[in-house]
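Narrative of accomplishments. A recurring question from our advisory board has been how the design workflow behaves on a single, concrete structure rather than in aggregate. To address it, we present the structure tokens for one chain from the evaluation set, followed by the sequence designed for it. No filtering or post-editing was applied between the two.
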């Protein structure tokens, strides 16, 4: 009969295993408090305003993010889109050869600069953003749009029905996972179709001119499942202006700037999660990364 290892020896073996995995670049061990499940190491590249995310096993091999689609003025809910957009140009400042880090700078036509440090990790892409107004005049840059293209991921890219991907997508309403289309789906706006969920405390006059859902999200996470349900993608920013389901098979968490006084700067942060498993595994990571946003009663 074999002998069981001494408890102290077993503990040492587990610690050594975790150290070995960390050195080898493997995902953290799942199931421990503060250490939710992780996915594969992702890589990123940026070219022609498109951020491309790749990783082992990723459905469709890659995911594209229009980064950034637009910077927007307030008063946008019932106004022509051309009057809302603030012109900008994004430049690549640095990209590491290993595909782990991309640094960008956006220059807005009103003089504001926005610096982005984007880092690919295990099952996530991290965004650290600083918006600065070096001018002597206040800026009306209130929000911006990273547009995540999910047609390939959801297996609906070639479907003639542009809303075919809706059933794969979700938000959280009344603290519950809610598949799209959600209850009380709005259908009237200056532009249709689409759906907007206005963030808590954000004026409903200052969001995308698509149908505005009457419900306020319970948290700032919006995402979708892959065609076979084996992977989940989700996006969150803090602070955020709105969650948005768009018309080019896309979903948004549009980050909030809230305007900038002369000489003022603001920080924004965000995550795109891409990992095997269902929405609950992504939600657990989100709750660790954004504890105030996730746990506050936002209704």
């Amino acid at each position: 009969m074999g002998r069981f290892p001494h408890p102290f020896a077993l503990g040492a073996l587990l610690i050594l295993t975790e150290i070995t995995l960390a050195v080898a670049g493997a995902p953290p061990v799942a199931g421990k408090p503060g250490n939710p499940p992780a996915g594969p190491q992702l890589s990123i590249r940026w070219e022609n305003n498109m951020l491309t995310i790749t990783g082992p096993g990723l459905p469709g091999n890659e995911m594209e993010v229009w980064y950034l689609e637009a910077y927007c003025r307030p008063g946008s809910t019932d106004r022509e889109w051309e009057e809302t957009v603030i012109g900008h140009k994004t430049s690549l400042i640095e990209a590491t050869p290993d595909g782990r880090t991309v640094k960008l700078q956006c220059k807005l036509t009103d003089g504001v600069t926005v610096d982005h440090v984007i880092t690919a990790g295990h099952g996530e892409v991290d965004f650290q953003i600083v918006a600065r107004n070096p001018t002597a005049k206040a800026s009306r840059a209130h929000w911006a749009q990273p547009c995540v293209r999910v047609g390939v991921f959801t297996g609906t890219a070639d479907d003639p029905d542009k809303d075919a991907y809706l059933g794969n997508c979700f938000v959280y309403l009344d603290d519950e996972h809610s598949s799209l289309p959600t209850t009380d789906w709005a259908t009237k706006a200056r532009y249709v179709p689409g759906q907007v969920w206005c963030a808590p405390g954000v004026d409903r006059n200052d969001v995308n001119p698509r149908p505005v859902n009457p419900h306020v999200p319970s948290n700032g996470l919006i995402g979708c499942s892959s065609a076979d349900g084996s992977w989940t993608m989700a996006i969150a920013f803090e602070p955020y202006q709105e969650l948005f389901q768009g018309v080019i098979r896309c979903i948004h968490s549009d980050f909030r700037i809230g305007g900038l006084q002369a000489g003022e700067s603001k920080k924004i942060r965000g995550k795109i999660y891409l990992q095997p498993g269902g929405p609950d595994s992504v939600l657990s990571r989100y709750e660790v990364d954004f504890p105030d946003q996730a746990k506050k009663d936002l209704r």
